[in-house]
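STRUCTURE REQUEST FORM
Protein name: Crp/Fnr family transcriptional regulator
Source organism: Phragmitibacter flavus
Requested output: C-alpha coordinates
Priority: standard
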Amino acid sequence: MSADFTTPELPAQGIIQPLGDDDRMLLSSYGEFLPVQPMQKLITEGEEQNSLYFVISGNLHVMTTRSGRQVLLGRIGPGETIGEVNIFHPGLASATVTAVEFSQVWRCDRQSLEDFMNVSPLPASHILIGIASTLSKRLREMNDKVAIVGHL
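Status: completed
Returned output:
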Protein backbone atom coordinates (compact mmCIF):
# COMPACT_ATOMS: atom_id res chain seq x y z
CA MET A 1 0.00 0.00 0.00
CA SER A 2 1.06 3.57 -0.43
CA ALA A 3 2.21 5.48 2.64
CA ASP A 4 -1.26 6.98 3.06
CA PHE A 5 -3.04 3.67 2.24
CA THR A 6 -5.08 5.22 -0.58
CA THR A 7 -3.37 3.58 -3.55
CA PRO A 8 -2.82 -0.17 -3.46
CA GLU A 9 0.68 -1.18 -4.52
CA LEU A 10 3.00 -4.07 -3.89
CA PRO A 11 6.18 -3.10 -2.05
CA ALA A 12 9.60 -4.09 -3.40
CA GLN A 13 10.27 -6.78 -0.80
CA GLY A 14 10.30 -10.56 -0.54
CA ILE A 15 9.54 -12.42 -3.76
CA ILE A 16 8.37 -9.14 -5.33
CA GLN A 17 11.73 -7.38 -4.81
CA PRO A 18 13.33 -8.29 -8.18
CA LEU A 19 10.46 -6.68 -10.10
CA GLY A 20 10.69 -3.13 -11.39
CA ASP A 21 8.07 -0.53 -10.48
CA ASP A 22 6.04 -1.05 -13.67
CA ASP A 23 6.03 -4.83 -13.27
CA ARG A 24 4.96 -4.54 -9.61
CA MET A 25 2.12 -2.21 -10.60
CA LEU A 26 1.02 -4.62 -13.33
CA LEU A 27 1.21 -7.60 -10.98
CA SER A 28 -0.86 -5.65 -8.42
CA SER A 29 -3.72 -5.51 -10.92
CA TYR A 30 -3.87 -9.32 -11.15
CA GLY A 31 -4.84 -9.70 -7.51
CA GLU A 32 -6.71 -7.93 -4.77
CA PHE A 33 -5.64 -6.10 -1.64
CA LEU A 34 -7.28 -7.26 1.58
CA PRO A 35 -7.36 -5.80 5.07
CA VAL A 36 -7.23 -8.52 7.73
CA GLN A 37 -8.42 -7.61 11.22
CA PRO A 38 -6.84 -9.03 14.40
CA MET A 39 -8.07 -12.60 15.05
CA GLN A 40 -9.59 -12.78 11.53
CA LYS A 41 -8.87 -16.01 9.64
CA LEU A 42 -7.32 -15.49 6.23
CA ILE A 43 -7.15 -19.22 5.42
CA THR A 44 -9.00 -22.02 7.20
CA GLU A 45 -7.49 -25.50 7.48
CA GLY A 46 -9.42 -28.07 5.46
CA GLU A 47 -11.11 -25.55 3.15
CA GLU A 48 -10.45 -25.14 -0.58
CA GLN A 49 -7.43 -22.91 -1.19
CA ASN A 50 -6.03 -21.86 -4.58
CA SER A 51 -4.41 -18.49 -3.89
CA LEU A 52 -1.05 -17.00 -3.12
CA TYR A 53 -1.00 -14.36 -0.39
CA PHE A 54 1.71 -11.73 -0.02
CA VAL A 55 1.90 -9.96 3.35
CA ILE A 56 2.35 -6.22 2.98
CA SER A 57 2.07 -5.30 6.65
CA GLY A 58 1.17 -6.91 9.96
CA ASN A 59 1.78 -10.37 11.36
CA LEU A 60 -0.08 -13.63 11.01
CA HIS A 61 0.15 -17.02 12.69
CA VAL A 62 0.02 -20.31 10.84
CA MET A 63 -1.64 -22.96 13.01
CA THR A 64 -2.81 -26.53 12.65
CA THR A 65 -4.79 -28.80 14.93
CA ARG A 66 -3.16 -32.04 16.06
CA SER A 67 -4.76 -34.39 18.59
CA GLY A 68 -7.28 -31.68 19.43
CA ARG A 69 -4.56 -29.10 20.20
CA GLN A 70 -3.61 -25.95 18.31
CA VAL A 71 0.01 -26.10 17.13
CA LEU A 72 1.85 -22.99 15.93
CA LEU A 73 3.66 -23.84 12.71
CA GLY A 74 5.03 -20.40 11.98
CA ARG A 75 4.80 -16.65 12.02
CA ILE A 76 4.42 -14.71 8.78
CA GLY A 77 5.32 -11.04 8.44
CA PRO A 78 5.80 -8.34 5.82
CA GLY A 79 7.41 -9.52 2.60
CA GLU A 80 6.52 -13.17 3.21
CA THR A 81 4.03 -15.34 1.37
CA ILE A 82 1.40 -17.90 2.28
CA GLY A 83 -0.37 -20.46 0.09
CA GLU A 84 2.54 -21.31 -2.18
CA VAL A 85 1.79 -25.04 -2.29
CA ASN A 86 -1.77 -24.45 -3.45
CA ILE A 87 -0.61 -22.35 -6.40
CA PHE A 88 1.06 -25.48 -7.81
CA HIS A 89 -1.29 -28.08 -6.37
CA PRO A 90 -4.72 -26.60 -5.55
CA GLY A 91 -6.57 -28.38 -2.80
CA LEU A 92 -7.45 -28.11 0.84
CA ALA A 93 -5.53 -25.76 3.10
CA SER A 94 -3.12 -27.63 5.37
CA ALA A 95 -3.25 -24.97 8.09
CA THR A 96 -5.23 -22.00 9.39
CA VAL A 97 -3.73 -18.53 8.99
CA THR A 98 -4.95 -15.87 11.42
CA ALA A 99 -3.94 -12.23 11.81
CA VAL A 100 -2.45 -11.41 15.22
CA GLU A 101 -2.64 -7.68 14.44
CA PHE A 102 -4.15 -5.58 11.68
CA SER A 103 -2.55 -6.81 8.48
CA GLN A 104 -2.67 -5.95 4.80
CA VAL A 105 -2.26 -8.71 2.25
CA TRP A 106 -2.43 -9.10 -1.49
CA ARG A 107 -4.20 -12.20 -2.83
CA CYS A 108 -3.73 -13.69 -6.29
CA ASP A 109 -5.46 -16.87 -7.39
CA ARG A 110 -3.82 -19.45 -9.62
CA GLN A 111 -5.62 -18.40 -12.82
CA SER A 112 -4.68 -14.75 -12.34
CA LEU A 113 -1.05 -15.68 -11.73
CA GLU A 114 -1.08 -17.77 -14.92
CA ASP A 115 -2.55 -14.79 -16.80
CA PHE A 116 0.29 -12.59 -15.48
CA MET A 117 2.81 -15.25 -16.55
CA ASN A 118 1.44 -15.16 -20.12
CA VAL A 119 1.63 -11.36 -20.30
CA SER A 120 4.95 -10.89 -18.47
CA PRO A 121 7.01 -14.09 -18.55
CA LEU A 122 10.32 -12.65 -17.30
CA PRO A 123 8.88 -10.90 -14.20
CA ALA A 124 6.71 -13.97 -13.59
CA SER A 125 9.83 -16.15 -13.64
CA HIS A 126 11.24 -14.05 -10.78
CA ILE A 127 8.03 -14.65 -8.82
CA LEU A 128 8.18 -18.40 -9.47
CA ILE A 129 11.84 -18.56 -8.41
CA GLY A 130 10.89 -16.69 -5.23
CA ILE A 131 8.05 -19.12 -4.53
CA ALA A 132 10.35 -22.11 -5.14
CA SER A 133 12.97 -20.61 -2.81
CA THR A 134 10.36 -20.06 -0.09
CA LEU A 135 9.08 -23.63 -0.40
CA SER A 136 12.63 -25.02 -0.34
CA LYS A 137 13.53 -23.01 2.75
CA ARG A 138 10.41 -24.15 4.59
CA LEU A 139 11.01 -27.78 3.59
CA ARG A 140 14.58 -27.64 4.93
CA GLU A 141 13.38 -26.07 8.18
CA MET A 142 10.77 -28.81 8.59
CA ASN A 143 13.35 -31.51 7.81
CA ASP A 144 15.60 -30.05 10.51
CA LYS A 145 12.73 -30.12 13.02
CA VAL A 146 11.88 -33.73 12.16
CA ALA A 147 15.54 -34.72 12.47
CA ILE A 148 15.72 -33.18 15.96
CA VAL A 149 12.53 -34.96 17.10
CA GLY A 150 13.86 -38.22 15.62
CA HIS A 151 16.92 -38.01 17.87
CA LEU A 152 14.97 -37.55 21.10
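Reviewer notes: Strands lie at 32-36, 41-43, 48-49, 51-57, 60-66, 69-76, 81-82, 91-92, 96-99, 103-109. The two ends are 46 Å apart (CA to CA).
Form closed.
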